[in-house]
Design a protein that fits this description.
The chain is an alpha+beta fold. A hairpin with a 5-residue loop joins strand 2 and strand 3. The strands form 4 sheets. Strands 3-2-1-10-5 form a 5-stranded mixed sheet, sandwiched between helices. Strands 4-9-8-7-6 form a 5-stranded mixed sheet, covered by helices on one side. Helix content is 28%, strand content 19%. The relative contact order is 0.13.
Length: 310
């Protein structure tokens, strides 16, 4: 009798636990349905961001970093967080062919249909390789992903915890009105110094072309408008006729658009400089004061990536 009561109690407890999990009262939830962690939501709020706002992703191979940027109410993108890339395959340079185990470089768009919630690498999104630029060169390959599981054969692999957070940010942005988010995949941070260090590389012209999009975003904090013609990325251009350019053909007539600078930069450039040339004597001598050796007291302003939260 005692044994029967024990078995009955054990079975009842198991059934209750299973029912709670299946009904959503437990902790079980498929990875692709999980909400953002409370910590990540707090980090977003701290930066004046929300999980529903549009995102933009930048990838840097040499630094093994992936950045997520979020749009705010002014339409411009602000740095949210930098994540470590756990693994990528191949070296610096673009992907050329199926099976070369090379991770792509270039400008790509990711729509909701490219999210893969049931990836065998935990969670993933398809980068959209080959794009029109890649196809203009006859490059081949498929299923080039940013995914979890920390193993790569042509993809950018993250840890499961990292891809989960990125996946949720992408999912929420796409579910709340963003048609597609831009992925900018670079060999390294496109600084003048890094390009100079690779000036003899066979891909230097390709990388200079990528730098045009990199610079546009660095200045404007807006995703660059990207077209492809003459087998090159054409950044921030407006075609004079309503035509679709041939990626491998000559570029139709176009004009370069001005780079829309953030208001703070516009104000800084427009602010008149003070003119002290009318002072015939140094101010110190007029007041009968003396000063020690002059010391530099400035901070350099750069257009490099935002660093808080990296």
């Amino acid at each position: 009798m005692l044994r029967s009561s024990f078995v009955t109690a054990a079975v009842t407890a198991s059934v209750v636990a299973l029912s709670a999990a299946l009904s959503g009262c437990g902790q079980f939830s498929p990875a692709y349905m999980k909400p953002l962690s409370a910590q990540t939501r707090a980090q977003l709020a701290e930066k004046g961001m929300s999980e529903e706002q549009p995102i933009l992703v930048r990838i840097f191979k040499a630094e093994s970093e992936l950045e997520v940027w979020k749009a705010k109410d002014d339409g411009r993108f602000y740095h949210f967080k930098t994540y470590p890339i756990c693994a990528y395959s191949g070296g610096l340079g673009p992907k050329l062919a199926q099976g070369d185990r090379q991770s792509p470089e270039g400008f790509y768009l990711v729509s909701q249909e490219q999210l893969n919630p049931r990836s065998k690498y935990y969670l993933a999104f398809n980068m959209g390789f080959p794009n029109s630029y890649d196809r203009a060169y006859g490059r081949t390959g498929a299923n080039l992903m940013v995914h979890g599981d920390c193993t790569s054969s042509g993809c950018y692999a993250m840890t499961d915890a990292v891809i989960e957070e990125i996946f949720i940010l992408a999912r929420e942005a796409l579910a709340n009105g963003q048609g597609a988010f831009q992925v900018q995949a670079y060999p390294f941070r496109m600084t003048a110094a890094n390009l100079a260090a690779h000036k003899d590389d066979k891909w230097i012209d390709f990388w200079k072309n990528l730098k045009e999009g990199y610079d546009y975003f660095e200045i404007s904090r807006l995703p660059p408008k990207v077209a492809v013609c003459e087998k090159r990325y054409l950044i921030n251009a407006s075609f004079t006729a309503n035509v679709r350019p041939d990626p491998a053909g000559a570029c139709p007539a176009y004009q370069r658009l001005p780079i829309p600078r953030p208001p703070a930069m516009q104000e800084a450039s427009a602010k008149p400089k003070k003119n002290y040339s009318s002072l015939s004597k140094p101010l110190g001598s007029v007041l009968g004061l003396t000063f020690g050796p002059s010391k530099s007291n400035y901070r350099a302003f750069t257009l490099g990536p935002a660093t808080p939260g990296r």
